[in-house]
């Protein structure tokens, strides 16, 4: 039995959704909502165009729509994420948790661009289409996001530095 071309993109959608919302269950819901919308709108996808970018664009729109309708809930939820206790020998895990916290401290528009370009390896053009913003906006958000992330992880101006655990 052959699989549908959408199926090959599910792992990347899950990873991006998890990075956007920070919660596995909310990420699964976002992926499901995205796939449902994509399936219902499949007739709008242009054959030969990049399905991955199209799916990320749908996910972005679903995420923004949900964030608009539940903005306070999302902010409260992100602040209430539990701190996971780990043993001192798990320095890499702690570093990943600190980077994750720094990513969450970024404004959503910078975080989205940073995740699409750096993690999902979309080009600036693909990211521009996925988020429906000009390439210049992608580049400036990426630059500001990278700089802010650098500040957060190095303790730069206006930040609370992340702990270095050894």
Give the structural class.
mainly alpha
Write down the CATH topology of the largest domain: Rna Polymerase Sigma Factor, Chain: A
Query: Which radius of gyration do the C-alpha atoms yield?
Result: 17 Å
Kindly estimate the percentage of residues that lie in beta strands according to DSSP.
under 5%
Textual characterization of the structure:
The chain contains 8 helices and no strands. The longest helix is centred in the C-terminal third of the chain and has 20 residues. The chain is mainly α and 166 residues long. The C terminus is likely disordered. Helix content is 67%, strand content 0%. The chain has 2 domains: 81 residues, RNA polymerase sigma factor, region 2, helix turn helix motif (Rna Polymerase Sigma Factor, Chain: A, Orthogonal Bundle); 81 residues, Winged helix-like DNA-binding domain superfamily/Winged helix DNA-binding domain (Arc Repressor Mutant, subunit A, Orthogonal Bundle). Helix 6 packs across helix 8.
List the helices and strands and how they pair.
Blueprint: H1 10-21, H2 24-40, H3 51-69, H4 71-79, H5 91-105, H6 108-119, H7 124-131, H8 135-154
A few lines on this structure:
This protein has 166 residues and is an all-alpha fold.
Keywords:
Arc Repressor Mutant, subunit A, 8 helices, Rna Polymerase Sigma Factor, Chain: A, globular, 166 residues, mainly alpha
